[in-house]
Amino acid sequence: MARFAHLALLAVGLLPGIALAGKPFVPSWIKNDPAAKRVAIEIVADWNQVERYRRDNIRTDIIDFNGYWGGNLTIIVLGERSVQIEFINGSSNFRHGLMVTRVYARSEMPVKLKAEDAIWGAYTAPLEGIKINERRQLNFVAQQAANYFLACPRQTHLMDGDWIGFEVRGNLERAMAIVHEDKSAGAAPRTSIGLREQTSAMVSSWRSLQIHRALP
Q1: What would the pLDDT profile of 159-172 be if each residue is shown by its tens digit?
Q2: Angle at CA 147, nearest 5°, toward 131 and 28?
Q3: Pairing between β-strand 163-169 and β-strand 146-151 as defined by DSSP bridges
Q4: How far apart are CA 128 and CA 70, in angstroms?
Q5: Which of 9, 63, 166, 169 is geometrically suited to a Cys-Cys bond with 148, CB 3.0 to 4.6 A?
């Protein structure tokens, strides 16, 4: 039965930590409040770091946001919405920070970011990063519709891939995220699917597989 439960999860793409590439989704760490025209986002630096280091065939250098790095995830919000980001340094080893910046080509990425690089003045202080397990809150209004980065301002961190995409759109019902098909995701990134939804989908798919096995 365990084997078929595993197959069922694979069939519906709901193994823990897996988001479907290219399909917009609303993860558990994005909370939309349309009435207040506000979105709350929780971002953890070095999410699931222990697991990533254990699985040395996945990625063993450092640094990510919610398990994503190098632009393999984009958070999309509606323009003129108030954005509140709860930023947590979940690293066991490094200071981290967060800043909204313009888009940088690889060849033009600065060694470290400065306060004047922040779009809408949105960055965590100090620029050298907050300590392990510390928290900071970013509050800003998403203004011009365009593509941006959410990046760590620390020295070399942007160049090392410590950034994800941030997009402001003019026509959007709710804030969401999208995993990019041409880039790989981190080890067990934070997704939208809760345990209850996983279990329900697993049971339904397992029953379907059992019925299929029973057919002549």
Answers
A1: 999 999 999 999 99
A2: 55
A3: antiparallel
A4: 20
A5: 166
How many other C-beta atoms lie within 10 A of the C-beta of residue 116?
A: 6
Question: Which residues, at least 6 apart from 163, have a Cβ–Cβ distance to it below 8 Å?
Answer: 65, 69, 70, 71, 149, 150, 151, 152
Question: What are the DSSP E strand ranges found in the chain?
Answer: 30-33, 38-45, 73-78, 82-89, 99-101, 135-141, 146-151, 163-169, 176-179
As a whole number of angstroms, the distance between CA 33 and CA 46 comes to 27
Helix (H, G, I), strand (E, B) or coil at 201: helix
Which residue's structure tokens are 């897996």?
Answer: 18
Residue 214 burial (CB count, 10 A): 7
Residue linked to tokens 């929780």: 42
